[in-house]
Give the backbone structure.
Amino acid sequence: MCKAGRERFEEFPLGGPAPPVPVWRCKVCGYLAAREKPPEVCPVCKAGRERFEEFPL
């Protein structure tokens, strides 16, 4: 599915308490980013910020 190399991903902790910031999911490739606002551009598939949605934990 995704052909991006390992270096294009950041670690995402699973389990434990929820992160203190929202988690955003790219609707194109599924990339998850834990930060205040979604990235300007998805580092995996290059989709724009408008293609991100808040991911419920």
In short: The longest strand covers residues 23-26.
